[in-house]
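#struct-help
A.M.: can someone run this one for me? Single chain, 390 residues.
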Amino acid sequence: MINRNYLPRLRTALAEAPAVVLLGPRQVGKTTLALAVAEAGSDQPPPLYLDLESPADRAKLAEPELYLSAVEDRLVILDEIQRVPELFQTLRGLIDAGRRRGRKTGRFLLLGSASMTLMQQSSESLAGRIRLLELTPVFATEITPAELDTLWLRGGFPDSLLAPSDAASLRWRTDFIRTYLERDIPQLGPRIAAETLRRFWTMLAHRQASLLNQAEVARALGVDGKTVAAYLDLMVDLLLVRRLPPWHRNVGKRLVKSPKVYVRDAGLVHALLGIETKDALLGHPIAGNSWEGMVIESLLAAAPGGTEACFYRTAVGAEIDLVLTIPSKGPWAIEIKRSLSPKLERGFHHACEDVQPDAGFVVYPGSERFPMAGGVEVISLVGLCEKLKA
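D.P.: on it. Structure tokens below:
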């Protein structure tokens, strides 16, 4: 069992809002976390859990208003809510009726693995009544420092991370990818050939942390650019791929406009590329970019709500791997290095002159903190995560 840092955040959300949507890819631990929250309130009636992929549970909601009105005193957990989007209108009426009777918070916990578009529709139906939270795979501060390399290799899905061996972990991730391609994605939208989508996903893994060249990917797949854009939108909506936007403010320089693309879980990157062991990973050309992706996911998971993330790159090579704009603070410039003796290129310092960050950091695999020229601090991944949470 991994103690997730999201537990206090989810408890707070349920104490303040009548409905909470917990988003995350399949097998990331949403149900486990939801039940853990429910168990924490021992003085409350036991929660009602309904899996909307189960025909038996869906049959109970044939008359949803009647059924759910009878359990108003209990937290209702609705898993895979995207299966029954018409429920949102019913929930709106139940929440408003409950408010008039003094039942204002902690009514519904909705779990969803897809998609962001659907969740936006829920926000429209339940405006002012709902809070959205995202549960990511396990990240750096939820494990011990000694387990960081295991997290990097295997990724943060609990069953993969806790597998008895690297080989067993790779088998789990391979099965996970196959299930998404052959079962989950076809149920969510237009039919896409599983092999085509696998090739697309694998191409993204090969291009981890790189600028998206949509035309190049389209030629390799034998499709047009609009189709590639639709595939990418789907993977982003499923919370499996991150599209990191470029810095967009006017600094009088010619800026790169294409986003950078990351397969969000490093373990899935390695599974798509057939990398089983740490030795194989360290010898693979993807190692540095894979490390960068894991660092970014951990930092964004630790960052306070409302933090904006982007990268900075000019046409002449000035670059910052990650720019975080934290609410009520100026931007932080973050460079990511997979080296115990990191060095900064001139391009980073030139980029900082443009961005004017409040702070500059180099994240590296070591544990010590020490200063570099230009007011930049070298810091561990866990150290910067803790600094973001402070």
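A.M.: thanks! The mean pLDDT is 89.
D.P.: also worth noting: Residues 140-389 form one domain.
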